[in-house]
Amino acid sequence: MSTEYVERTETTTTSDGSGISFQSGFLRSLPGYLKIAEMVLDLIAFICASVDWWVPLGQGWAQFVFISALITTLIFFIFHLFNVFSKLPGPWIFIEFVYYVVYCVLIFIAVIVCLARGAQYSHGGIIAATVFGMAALAVYIIDTWFMFRNWQSSRHAGTSGSGTSGTTTTTTTHTTYETRTQY
Which of 18, 117, 142, 168 is deepest in the core (most CB within 10 A)? Predict the structure, then answer.
């Protein structure tokens, strides 16, 4: 009498082989240039919005929008620079696209507030915040357009946008042994 024992092991791993590392090529790419320009323009617009005293007139809103856009863009810049997105689950191309759409709307509102107050009170800081806010808005719109195209191409290609690919390894072991009845 013989008995056959079958053991099946299935292992699924997810990796793209690159890991978290410094990506110097991102600094010389169009998305890298756009993110650097966004951060510089956000910082200048924030400083210009902080120079004159116009708190009851919308200064707090403009400062909040420009500094939060700066912080969010800095986080995305660091994540791209060190290839962190490849190790995080989720459709990061789409998530970043949504963030940028929201910031385009918020910066547009902040620029309108600055424009209305600058036309009314003619403070140099408010006018400068309006100009640099418009420049930042233009760069954000361009970057958002490129993100939209990237998201659409990744959607049609069937990838999740996180930069990872799955590998499945299946191992099957057959063991045959004989059993004897003992009296």
Answer: 117
